[in-house]
Amino acid sequence: MNILSYMETYGHEQLAVWTDKEAGLRAFIAVHDTTLGPSLGGVRVWAHPTEEAALTDVLRLSRAMTYKSAAAGLHFGGGKGLIMADRTQKTEAMMRSFGRFVESLGGRYLTTEDVGMTSQDLEWIAQSTKHVTGLPVSQGGSGDTSPMTGFGIYTAMRACAREKWGSDGLGGRTIAIQGFGNTATWLVRNLQEHGEEVKLVITDINDAARERARQVKNATVVGPDQIYDTPCDVFAPCALGGILNDDTIPRLKCQIVCGAANNQLLTLEHGDALQKRGILYAPDYVVNAGGVINVSCEVDSRYSEQAAREKTARIYDTMQRVFGTSKRDGISTARAADRLAEERIASVRRVRRVHMGKA
Ligand code: NAD
Prior knowledge:
Order of helices and strands: HEEEHEHEHHEHEHEEEHEHHHHH
Number of strands: 11
Radius of gyration: 20 Å
Strand content: 15-25%
Shape: globular
Largest sheet: 6 strands, parallel
Oligomer: single chain
Mean pLDDT: 95
Bound molecules: nicotinamide-adenine-dinucleotide
CATH class of the largest domain: Alpha Beta
CATH topology of the largest domain: Rossmann fold
Distance between the termini: 35 Å
CATH superfamily of the largest domain: NAD(P)-binding Rossmann-like Domain
CATH architecture of the largest domain: 3-Layer(aba) Sandwich
Number of helices: 13
Number of domains: 2
């Protein structure tokens, strides 16, 4: 991989590398774009087989964060951290060292939890840097992001229902859920709390999760592969990325796809394929922005769940703008979301240039 060309092509500002042999740390931080504000994104702990695989991952994930924050109307750019280790190798020394790495960037990157991290790890990082968010509630932070992500998925689903069926109520509809983990559980809780009498079809690869799903009112549990063939109104992918692809799209028997998983489309062209089949696709990073909105509310001021909820509720309006752009420009909803995010960044960049006397 030619890193500099890759970064130029995809608009990355910075890639930082850190080693600390004593602490057993090898890490990268990618800052994609800071036009809207300091870059924000979690740090992932993952034992990539090669440095190249780790670099590709951190660069790709940092760019996705730029789009997510821009589409959510946040004043943050996109960044991501990556610790090349297995989660079993984590130590306090390693996390404190990563904190020093974050601190060395002087606030250009704000870190938070991602795959392979726990709130304890984040607390250790916070010993070495103030550029941390998403700390536990006991530390004055915003805590677990899943409840807000679940509320965001429910909000996006209502916007989809209005677009597809003319009313945002979901009562009487069948929702097929792939992966019954944190976000899906909070989605179901939101449906129940809002009195939506839906039928649920749930799958998971984990026995305990399937057993939990069996206890949910109006829920049927199916095998992991059956979920793609399940007749339903809404398919909610809440597990893995890349699951909307050449094999699965022809099998889907739904009218809407709206779920929490990141990078659901294997490629952008799969968004076009869904559109061709008449399936309304809710762009994943718009749908699942509740988590980043929640942690962003901890940065500027004292965290308030009410404020985070109000901002997350705006996902409804963002979805409507995505649908409007998709229809106006004759493009898929996936491309429309990208366009909205890019337009926002470009307009702020233009204003900044004018202020700096460059235009
Ligand atoms: P989780 O680990 O709590 O739940 C995922 C569930 O999916 C697990 O129960 C797992 O067993 C199941 N699963 C894995 N592979 C599967 C498969 N092939 N078929 C069926 N089930 C499978 O994770 P989560 O926090 O609910 O996150 C789900 C997705 O949403 C992830 O892609 C995550 O990146 C994304 N996301 C989460 C948040 C958040 O706030 N937690 C925010 C934004 C995006």
